[in-house]
């Protein structure tokens, strides 16, 4: 239902303020979107949307134009409203929490100026506290140069990056790219602890008990990128061997590594700190799960 407007609400207002007022108060709206999984109704103006987006223009004026309400299932109402606010006012506040939703919307509806603002935010954040967010977003949207830059930063600032909250929300594919590298500057104890926390979060999101068995299941092949032989024997005995994340055979293999008998269960080469290095091509098949510790050289 259209909201009642104040008298003379146009007087003394800028164009963007007037457009925002009409959107917020649903004045003269001529299209209704049903957005998200709960189909939340959001009203807007075809003219404004078509003037900003080739996709919206085709939606309303093309040969297969929409005649009634429009369903949009792949964007949440929160992000769709942010996108509308930008279309009407050209103002937006981008942060680590909304960047992925806004970037997805800007790509889907070909909002180039919004996409540029998202790219600027990512570029400015690549060497900061949100490097993991930048890395995941660049990976998801195939921004290869930015992905490589963020990965380089994470390698060089391994401990700080792994201890950030954002690390726990990385995908398994991104984690493989981080953990498989010799260039990651981080002790293996921290890597193990953070990976266990990541796995427990995966369990919680799937409503699974955070048992050792489920932690191992959530880790999957990532388990074999943790270099257990690089831990101190005391830490391994007190904190790892006492748990059921590793099998008996795997624990024995680590103890054999401690005593100079190299096994092929876990990687035992040290992670290196090189001041200048080049990243190998970002290919997940460089890790061969069947051999656990075998890295395929290209």
Automatic annotation (TrEMBL):
Residues 29-96 form the BTB domain. Pfam families: BACK, BTB. It comes from the Eukaryota. This is BTBD3_6. PROSITE patterns: BTB. InterPro entries: BACK, BTB/POZ_dom, SKP1/BTB/POZ_sf. Gene3D superfamilies: 1.25.40.420, Potassium Channel Kv1.1, Chain A. It comes from Mytilus coruscus (Sea mussel).
